[in-house]
Design a protein that fits this description.
The chain is an alpha/beta fold. The protein folds into 2 domains: about 5-55; about 60-310, 2-enoyl-CoA Hydratase, Chain A, domain 1 (Alpha-Beta Complex), CATH 3.90.226. It has 14 helices and 8 strands. The protein has helices at about 10-25, 35-50, 55-65, 70-80, 120-125, 135-150, 165-170, 175-185, 200-205, 225-235, 240-245, 250-255, 275-295, 300-310, and strands spanning about 80-85, 100-105, 105-115, 155-160, 190-200, 210-215, 220, 260-265. Strands 1, 2, 3, 4, 5, 6, 7 and 8 form an 8-stranded mixed β-sheet that branches. Helix 9 links the parallel strand 5 and strand 6 (about 210-215). Helix 3 crosses helix 11 and helix 6 runs parallel beside helix 8. The radius of gyration is 21 Å and the shape is globular. The model has no long low-confidence stretch (mean pLDDT about 90).
Amino acid sequence: MIQLLEFEKPIAEMERELEKLRAKSDSQNIDLSAQISEMEEKLAQTRISLYQDLTPWQRVQIARHVQRPYMLDYVSLAFTHFCELHGDRHIGDDKSMPGGLAMLGDRKVMVIGHQKGRDTKENLMRNFGSAHPEGYRKAIRLMRLAEKFGIPIVCLIDTPGAFPGIGAEERNIAEAIGYNLREMMLIKVPIIAVVLGEGGSGGALGIGVADRVLMMENAYYSVISPEGCAAILWKHRKHAPEAAEAMKIAAPDLKKLNLIDGVIAEPIGGAHHDHAAAAMALRDEVSQHLQQLQTLAPADLLRQRYEKFRQYGDWRGK
C-alpha cells in the first residue's frame, strides 16, 4: 500500500468515498454506476490537477518518499547483467556507493550511484545514502576503469549529502569530492548523471560532473537542504517550504535556468507509484543521450563538458 503524503489527503478521501459507493452497490445490489463513474472522473481530474501544479516543497516530499525507487531498484529494472565491483583500493568498500558494469539495452556501461536503505538495518549498512570518502574514491576508480575500456558512465544520484562525521573528515571527504570534480572533467568517455531523488550539496556533485545532467521529475538538486537554508535565513525549519521555493531546487526550475539538460517524466503521483514505468523512462532517456554523445570525438566531448560547466552562473540582465 502506498503511503500518502499530507498534501495527498484529498485524493485519499475521494478514494474512500469511491470504495464506499462500490461496496454499497455490491452489497445491496443497487445500480450506482452513474455515481461511481462521476466519482471516478472527479478523482482522475483531481489527481491530474494536483500533480500538475506541485510546489517545490511538495516535490521535495515526493523525492524523499520511503517507497520511492532507489539506485539499485533502477539498476535491476532498467539495466541488465549488473556486476558489482567493490573497494577503493585505499580504505575499503563503501556500501552507500555501489557501482559496477552493466548493460543498458545493447550498450555496456559503468553504473555508479548512491543507495539508501528501506529499513533501519539497511539504512545503517547504506549510511542513509550519505557516502564516505572511500565511496567517492571507489567511484573515480570505476570511472577510470570505464575510460580505459571505452565504456560510457551512468551516475545515479540520490543523497542528502556526503557523510559529515568525524571519520569522514579524518579521511578527508572534502579532498575526495574535490578530486572527483577535477578528474571527472577529464574523463574521455561520455558521462550521464541522473538525480533520482535527493541531490544534496557536494555529496551529489561528487559524481555529478557529466556531459548530460538529467533529473527525475520530482527530484531536487541543491547546495543545501530546504531545512538547512530555513535554519540559516529564518532561524527555524518551519520555513522550509519558503526556502524550497526561493532556492529554485525543483527540476522544472533548474531546466529553465539551464543548470540541467533534461527532466525525466514520472508516473502520475511520483515514481513510487510505478517503479517499472519510472525505470523505463530513465532507460529510454539515458539511452537517447548516450547515442548522441558516443558520436563525439573525445576532444569535442571534453570541450563541450568544459563549456557546459563554465556557463553555470552566467547571467545577463535585460
